[in-house]
Amino acid sequence: MPDIIIEGARPGEFLVSEANGYRSREQVMLASGGVYGPGTVLGQITHGTATAAPKAGNAGNGTVGSITVGSGVQPGVYVVTFLEPATNAGAFQVEDPDGENIGTGAVGAAFSGGGLGFTIADGSNDFGAGDQFKITVAAGSLHYKPWNPANTDGSETAIAVLYREVDATAGAKRGLIIARDAEVNANYLAWFTGATANQIAMGVAQLAERRGANGGIIVR
User: Fold this and answer.
1) How many domains is the chain partitioned into structurally?
2) Which helix H or strand E contains 201, and what residues bound it?
3) Domain span at residue 202?
4) Would you say residue 161 lies in a domain?
5) Domain assignment of residue 6, yes or no
6) Distance (Å, rounded) from C-alpha 29 to C-alpha 36?
7) Mean pLDDT of all residues in the chain?
8) Could you give the CA distance from residue 43 to residue 59 in angstroms, rounded to a whole number?
9) 128 closest CA partner among 219, 49, 33, 55
10) Burial 170-190, CB ≥16 within 10 A → b, else e
11) Which of 39, 31, 29, 42 is nearest to 8 (CA)?
């Protein structure tokens, strides 16, 4: 009996259509972590973790804790400024790295805005008007990795599809992606292990949202 050979996914097999020339394609770096096959849905590592530091001379000595970063956060420095001091309390506002006000919060209560989350704990000395913290969100590598909505480094947003297999087991590796203005076959896309129907629908919607001058990636 002859041997049975099972052919794997072929480069670009998922493509239904793409823009003329090379407008849909882009060479990028794939993050270290494994072998990624054609049709893998990708996100991009746009930011790292966040750290907080008080302004020298603050009247209050409370601390910032439970810092989280999520979708929409920007690399750079967020500024937390106390506006209304109070005994064992206090209200503050938060500005993003562009200087835009993204919300207000209070000591002891969880703040969430602009993709950033944290809680300021009260200290033995109360905060005063003008006290500040700077929360720095580290820049990401901008490498691409398999999309997963549970990721917290920017790759929780689906933005591209891998054209051909890339073996990034030993380190980051260059690869070719479909980044914009294309139609792809849903049957040939590779999602992360355990992806539910609702999560796949989310990824499909995120790919389609890449519109404007770049155009979206439409799943058929």
Assistant:
1) 2
2) helix 197-208
3) 15-46+140-219
4) yes
5) no
6) 12
7) 94
8) 42
9) 55
10) eebbebbbbbbbbbbeeebbb
11) 39
| C-beta of residue 135 within 8 angstroms of C-beta of residue 51 | yes
DSSP E strand stretches across the chain: 15-18, 25-30, 35-36, 41-44, 47-54, 63-69, 76-86, 89-95, 101-106, 110-113, 116-121, 132-139, 144-146, 160-162, 166-167, 173-178, 182-184, 217-219
Please tell me whether residues 212 and 197 are part of one structural domain.
Answer: yes
- The tens digit of pLDDT for each residue in 12-69 reads 899 999 999 999 999 999 999 999 999 999 999 999 999 999 999 999 999 999 999 9
Pair (96, 163) in one structural domain: no
Q: Are 203 and 186 in contact (CB under 8 A)?
A: no
Q: How is residue 90 written in tokens?
A: 């206090």
Residues forming beta bridges with residue 85, ordered by sequence position: 90
Distance CA(213)–CA(61), nearest Å, equals 48
Residues in the chain: 220
Whether the model clears a pTM of 0.70, i.e. scores above it, the answer is: yes
**DSSP structural state of residue 190:** B
SS3 assignment, position 205: helix
Q: How many Å separate Cα 40 from the centre of its chain?
A: 17
Beta bridge partners of 111: 118
How many Å apart are CA 77 and CA 69, to the nearest integer?
13
Edge-first strand listing for the sheet containing 89-95? 47-54, 132-139, 76-86, 89-95, 101-106
Per-residue DSSP letters for 34-82? Answer: SEE-TTBEEEE--EEEEEEEEPTT-S---EEEEEEE-TT--SEEEEEEE
